[in-house]
Amino acid sequence: MKPQLAGLLLLVAACSPLSVDPTEVPEGCVEIPAHVSSEKVTLITDLAAEFNATHPEVDGQCVAVTVYRTASGKAASLLAEGWPSDGSAGPVPVLWSPASSAWGAVVNERLAQAGQPPIAGDFQPIMLTPLVLAMPRPMAEAIGWPEADIGWSDVLELSSDPEGWGRFGHPEWGAFKLGKTNPNFSTSGLSATIAIYYAATGKRTPLTLADLTAPGTEQFVRGVEAATVHYGDTTLTFLENMLREDLNGRPMFYASAVAVEEVSVIAYNRGDPADKGLEDPTPPNVPLVAIYPKEGTLFSDNPAFVLDAPWVDETERAGAILFRDFVVSDPANQAKVLEFGFRPGNPSVPIGAPINSANGLNPSKPETELRVPAPEVLAALVDSWESFRKTARVIMVLDVSGSMADLGGDGFSKLDLAKRAVLASLDQFKGEDEVGLWVFSTRLLSGVDQDWLELIPPSPLSSSAAEIRRTVQGLIADGGTGLYDTTRAAVESVRDSYDPTKINAVILLTDGRCDDFDDGCDIEPLLRLLRSNERDPVRVFPVAYGVDADVDALEAIAAASQARLYVASDPLTIESVFQSVVSNF
Amino acid sequence: MSGWRAALVAVAVGAVILAAGFVFGRDEGPSVSQPDDGGGVALACAPGLESACRVVAAELGVPYRTWSVGSGVPDRTVVVAPAADLPDGLEAGPVILRSPIVIGAWRQRALVLLSRCGALDFECVAGALGMSWSEIGGSPEWGDVKLGLADPAASEEGMLAWSAAASLADPENMALSITLVASSDGRLASDMVLFGDSRADLAITTEAALAGQMANAPGRGGRIEVFYPVSSPWVEYVAAGRGRGVSSLKERLSAPELEPLWAAAGVRSAVHQVSTLLDGLGQPGSVDPAPDSPSRGRLLTDWKEVR
């Protein structure tokens, strides 16, 4: 259950949606496909439109840039394994801009292993943003910000202290809680995990394989990870939950710190953590400030790789270089980069607002940049993290009501596709994770007024995986949807045996809406229960499956338990969506 | 900065903007093709000279093309680069520009080293390698001493800088301290500014590459100071190219009237007396010979050891 680097990339690939931002290529022009990571797709799409409007030419041949949103890990995986020719991932890139140049090194390493030459060569950064620890300002001030040097070792010390925030005179803030994404899915999570290993070893020069097993490394990493609220595939989950709690008057409730890129602090403080360009966002009552870890940190350097690949001809290459220079060399365009909250990739454009103290940021930090380790060390580091990360205790609650028998796609029923997704996701857990299995429907037990059935109680997956597989394969669909009483029962079950050293959670997969009116379809009692679990939080991660799922109700359930809703409107996407769900553990 | 120097720098900065406008003009659109007339020859330079060459290209009214070692040279393009880095088959002229290998340092770091050593020279750098800043009188926040170099296997500038740096410290300390390895001296200086002092505190590289970024450093939180060793290798640049009109541009590049422009951008003419250098640059030491072929082989072996 420990993914090697290739597995890591596959996981990312499986879970990263591709969306295409269509740009019309004028007739007779050569298309220059640019695949970029999601955080900058709006910016690059705007710049591509401006570039195309200038009617760029290469030796008299007009060229036009088209922009595709492709997650860094997905693009890396496809470039290493062969870009699909069926167009499912968009046209093969000429220009590639992942979040970090480390992805380019990964591609080159994998190509080298296959005896092929590198394709991601020298590059120019389009923009930069360092990984920071974002904290609500009062919490940061309590531990000495902005004067004190603060780092991961302080996180460890505070999170290990039974007094928690009481140590700094704020027992009402409870224990120190960390929001950190899963390094298998998120560049921020990967950067944070690397930084924690550096802090554990006390090194600033590149980590080696020996460092990963050095005395003290395991204890340090386990200590920091123990403070984690949950993991996940995007930092947005943390930021949106923090903002919601802030606007509900509980700014210090959900998390004490989140490991995010500097640019995310700006978006959060604007009240628009997803950077949707909201016209009138409501800023948080308590802003976040950035702590640049004293042990050093990593930058996302957003490289513009003009690929040295056999499918790139001279005209395409020259056109891509023109566009890269347009984005990087033109100070006006780099000023736009700054407006988006990134540090410009052109050194002639100074760092200014919004990267300033008014946003809780320090443009002269960090003092030390940490480098991404060599690919083989990186793969071993992520494997090692799989062992040291916080263990999960999860009940998977599956809807087996009659509607799950409906066709989902490709000739499979929705239940068949869901079963396949659950089985595939088991590989993402580690053996120590405790996983249980429930099903719910109104016709499970004749003569018994109960909509749910505990098929397998939570137990370490190392011993229960085979039984879960067998049981899932045998599920059939029938009956109605007793959604709320089932959710309530599952949450109470997890809470009854709550383990504070683990991530305690429920995964709730349903394709419908509550229709068991005999037992009550009033959602409020359930939401009150979920909101009441401050000391022993059980997170409910609902999956809205198919087009008939009650997205609003499930969103409310996710919000009340400070978790996240996942949507698989197209049943054929359930496998990748379910893997995103399980990335929280 | 004195008035005339300020004026010269202002002209240079204006010219850079003009050059950028020429290449990326919004109205006409970016293009890599040029009109096929007498003025259609383009200028391209080694990365460390790029800032200066954009200024000169604008002054001469010729387009500027980005170039790097290992990439081809299109017809009707003059490339200014060390002879060793030029592709085969190009007709190279005499040396027209020179740049000494120097030490560039962020000002706060430089002050600590100056306080420790008296002069910031190669020996002073050697004594700091493998150490943390707190051990040598700096702030603990600064971490370890971080040195930047251009890859000696990738360019002549990198090779000459490495020839000056290779014997400074034992390989172990060197390996600990080299935190920035760039594909060229231009990229080295650019990265040093882009990432501030988090990526490199010091760099051993060409004066020209550092000069090209000095004006940008304050926008990234500090100043870069240049220090001249008693002696060091100098990089020599030639102009080369092929096609119609190339010879004319090659000659114009070494014309006396361009010398102040080169100097104001931090590049020394090999033909004319240098008179008006960029503010912040000073008097270099004597010239060390470039390493011979066997020495280069040994240096590359040493490089592999510390990388």
Explain this structure to me?
The complex is a heterodimer of chains A (585) and B (307). By secondary structure, chain A is an alpha/beta fold. Chain A is built from 20 helices and 21 strands. In chain A, helix 1 packs across helix 3. Chain A is globular. Chain B has 307 residues and is α/β, with parallel strands linked by helices. Chain B folds into 2 domains: 3-98 and 236-269, Periplasmic binding protein-like II (D-Maltodextrin-Binding Protein, domain 2), CATH 3.40.190; 99-232 and 286-306, D-Maltodextrin-Binding Protein, domain 2 (3-Layer(aba) Sandwich). Helix content of chain B is 37%, strand content 20%. Chain B contains 11 helices and 11 strands. Chain B has helices at residues 3-24, 50-60, 107-117, 122-128, 156-165, 171-177, 185-194, 207-214, 246-253, 259-264, 293-306, and strands spanning 42-45, 64-65, 77-81, 91-106, 147-150, 178-182, 202-206, 224-227, 231-242, 268-269, 286-288. In chain B, strands 1, 2, 3, 4, 5, 6, 7, 8, 9, 10 and 11 form an 11-stranded mixed beta sheet that branches. In chain B, helix 2 (50-60) links the parallel strand 1 (42-45) and strand 2 (64-65). Chain B is globular and about 60 Å long. The interface between A and B is large, with 41 and 43 residues.
What does the secondary structure layout of this molecule look like, with pairings?
The complex is a heterodimer of chains A (585) and B (307).
Chain A: H1 5-15, E1 19-21, E2 30-36, H2 41-53, E3 57-58, E4 61-69, H3 72-81, E5 95-97, H4 102-113, E6 124-125, E7 127-136, H5 137-142, H6 152-160, E8 178-179, H7 187-201, H8 209-212, H9 217-225, H10 236-247, E9 257-261, H11 262-270, E10 288-291, E11 299-300, E12 303-306, H12 314-329, H13 331-339, E13 343-344, H14 375-388, E14 392-399, E15 407-409, E16 412-413, H15 414-425, E17 434-440, E18 452-460, H16 461-473, H17 483-496, E19 503-510, H18 524-531, E20 539-545, H19 551-560, E21 566-568, H20 574-582
Parallel strand pairs in A: 2-4, 2-5, 8-9, 14-17, 14-19, 19-20, 20-21
Antiparallel strand pairs in A: 1-4, 3-4, 5-12, 6-12, 7-9, 7-10, 7-11, 7-13, 15-16, 17-18
Chain B: H1 3-24, E1 42-45, H2 50-60, E2 64-65, E3 77-81, E4 91-106, H3 107-117, H4 122-128, E5 147-150, H5 156-165, H6 171-177, E6 178-182, H7 185-194, E7 202-206, H8 207-214, E8 224-227, E9 231-242, H9 246-253, H10 259-264, E10 268-269, E11 286-288, H11 293-306
Parallel strand pairs in B: 1-2, 1-3, 5-6, 5-7, 9-11
Antiparallel strand pairs in B: 3-9, 4-7, 4-8, 4-9, 4-10
